[in-house]
Give the backbone structure.
Amino acid sequence: MPRSDPASEVLELTRGLVAIDSVSPSLAPGAPGEAAIAAFAADRLDAAGFAVRCVTPAADPRRVSVIAVRDGPRQGATVVLNGHLDTVGVEGMDDPFTARAEDDRLSGRGTSDMKGGVAGIIVAAGLLAAAGAPGRIIVTLVADEEDASLGAVAVIDDLIGEATRMDACLIAEPTWLDLAVAHRGYGVAVVEMEGRAAHSSQPGEGIDALKPLGDLLVAVAGRDHELHGVPEHPLLAHGSLMTTVARGGTAAFTIAAHAEAVIERRTLPGESPTAAYDDVRALVDAVVAGAPGVRAHVRPKIARDAWEMDAAGPAAALAEALAASLAATGAPPRRVGAPYWMESALWQAAGVPTVVCGPAGGGLHAVDEWVDLTQLRRFPVALADAVGKFLEAS
């Protein structure tokens, strides 16, 4: 198909993606999920010469992901270009699905996180196909990144099940076109304290569940302080431990028989994803030892690995190529760490060396989300150039 100017094409495509409501139904009940936007992206990739299939997890048929594959005229390496199709909710936003350009910004839900990056991937993939790049290009556009990563898990399982070779992966999360080469992991634990209710005028007849909960909150803050005292990771600083939910009691004149807390641990590369549970379990045991009659239950809710890009190998080579391409079109990228979690950890754990880079802006998960137009226009050309050179050298 004839190709337009990439800068115009990526802007038009971002507008088209934003216009499709792909709010995650696991975050906003009743939201539509990714079926419509997956069909739209699949059509674009099919028109660019990719063999396209959709992957849907059995757990939720609304969570549709796309796998698009194109083999070049010569054998070579395989590069995966990855992004996510879902967004957070739109409460409080005015006309969230209309992308509005003003000055150097394009505003609307998903412009930065991450429909701008997805548009850049699709345009770059089309440029590579039109140029006859060697090797194999796989575009994976996944569902449910904002919650449980059902899409990424299903796509990775599908590709591994097909024994697909994958030499390197580029995830186009918003990084301000810097190279994100590390991020923290996390684990979440739920703690429940069980006591016995009684009238507050006769506290000796009850077992207060709130007192040990308060002691636990203090202990969590102390452990967080300890974590800030260890040597810093060069890109990620420290791990952390914090209480994000605390509640208990039922009435003003009743001794609380139940209290609970949700505690989050952020981990560094090299730390076990079970560190959250281990830390919380130790703190709870110490608190309950001083609270006769109180029963405590600690339940791990979710845990994800921290990640760090390989210092050498395919991802490092792709990162170097991308750095050179970006430097040729503007400011050279920095190597940065992300304090939050990304799906790069899942790809790395599956044996696919990964780097993260994409256009960014502001207002992520907020009512005023936007992406920088200069970055949006630079990204697909730099990405296609870098991937092309990587494939030629492989």
The longest helix spans residues 373-393. Residues 40 and 349 are 30 Å apart (CA to CA). The chain has a mean pLDDT of 96.
